[in-house]
């Protein structure tokens, strides 16, 4: 029998609804500043999100659609690096200005988990500076055991590398960890690492295949605010007050081990 010992969170779309109004906006502002006639629309960016990592996304776009100007092959790595550094600055400005608030229930469930003595961590393909701006800015006061971000692993989600690294950092077994993800590629990565998965969907991932997740919810819920709703098809989770609590998740997977 395993006891849940850790909650591990993806960042973008889970902790903060950053994709549509954060990263996409920052990418577009960066393209404009560099003089490129490129603007990623809402739906187009959803398609691009199937590629893990901002640098990888831009490289794919440059190689398939181009930036409207000729870029020599030998200049691509340096250009992508400069674009990504500038885009990160713009994204962090959005975070620090509080233009992108935390998703409902995120701080609450982290505080509850901390009170239970659980390990907390973040695993994201987002840039390391951006991840730390969220972890130590928007989530100030929440004790994170680790923040794994950006190029800390060579292979990005849906590869499980970042979650396998999280197991090394935490010293825990996969069946002792619950991952909060929002996307198909994120849930696939966590499951490939052997972890439990709670998927908290957002407008970008609402229609994605999340059947591999153990639980799928619209959000975690906030007292007096948005209520959590559990989607059918996953494990049953009863909500007494419209919120998903840390203890609910711990007991859910404890019961799973006790009554498989």
Description of the molecule:
This protein has two domains: 170 residues, HAD superfamily/HAD-like (Rossmann fold); 78 residues, Putative phosphatase, domain 2 (DNA polymerase, domain 1, Orthogonal Bundle), CATH 1.10.150.240. It contains nine helices and six strands, in the order E-H-H-H-H-H-E-H-E-H-E-H-E-E-H. A six-stranded parallel β-sheet has the order 3-2-1-4-5-6, sandwiched between helices. The termini are close together.
In what range is the share of β-strand residues?
5-15%
**Separate helix tally:** 9
How would you write the strand order of the largest sheet?
A: 3-2-1-4-5-6
- Morphology: globular
Q: Averaged pLDDT, please?
A: 93
Uncertain spans, ≥5 residues at pLDDT below 50?
none
Element-by-element helix/strand order: EHHHHHEHEHEHEEH
Approximately how much helix is present in the residues?
40-55%
Which CATH architecture of the largest domain is right? 3-Layer(aba) Sandwich
Describe what is shown at a glance:
This protein is an alpha/beta fold. The chain has two domains: 6-17 and 101-258, HAD superfamily/HAD-like (Rossmann fold, 3-Layer(aba) Sandwich); 19-96, DNA polymerase, domain 1 (Orthogonal Bundle).
Pick out its properties.
alpha/beta, Rossmann fold, DNA polymerase, domain 1, 6 strands, 41% helix, globular
What's the structural blueprint in terms of helices and strands?
Layout: E1 6-9, H1 19-33, H2 42-48, H3 54-64, H4 76-96, H5 106-115, E2 119-123, H6 128-138, E3 146-148, H7 161-170, E4 177-181, H8 184-192, E5 196-200, E6 215-217, H9 246-258
Parallel strand pairs: 1-2, 1-4, 2-3, 4-5, 5-6
Helix pairs in contact: 1-4, 3-4, 4-6
């Amino acid at each position: 029998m395993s006891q849940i010992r850790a909650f591990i969170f993806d960042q973008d779309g889970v902790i903060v609804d950053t994709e549509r109004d954060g990263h996409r906006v920052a990418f577009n502002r960066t393209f404009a500043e560099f003089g490129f006639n490129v603007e990623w629309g809402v739906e187009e960016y959803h398609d691009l999100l199937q590629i893990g990592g901002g640098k990888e996304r831009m490289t794919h776009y440059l190689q398939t659609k181009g930036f409207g100007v000729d870029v020599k092959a030998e200049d691509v790595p340096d250009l992508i690096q400069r674009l990504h550094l500038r885009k990160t600055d713009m994204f962090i400005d959005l975070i620090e200005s509080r233009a992108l608030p935390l998703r409902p229930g995120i701080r609450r469930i982290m505080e509850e988990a901390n009170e239970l003595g659980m390990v907390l961590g973040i695993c994201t393909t987002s840039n390391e500076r951006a991840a730390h701006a969220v972890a130590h800015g928007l989530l100030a006061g929440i004790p994170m055991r680790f923040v794994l971000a950006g190029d800390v692993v060579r292979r990005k989600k849906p590869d499980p590398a970042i979650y396998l690294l999280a197991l090394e950092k935490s010293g825990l077994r996969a069946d002792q960890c619950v991952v909060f993800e929002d996307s198909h590629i994120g849930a696939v990565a966590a499951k490939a690492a052997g972890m439990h998965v709670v998927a908290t969907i957002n407008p970008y991932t609402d229609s994605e295949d999340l059947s591999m997740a153990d639980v799928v919810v619209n959000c975690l819920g906030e007292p007096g605010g948005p209520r959590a709703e559990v989607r059918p098809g996953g494990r049953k989770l009863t909500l007494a007050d419209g919120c998903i609590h840390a203890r609910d998740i711990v007991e859910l997977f404890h019961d799973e081990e006790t009554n498989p």
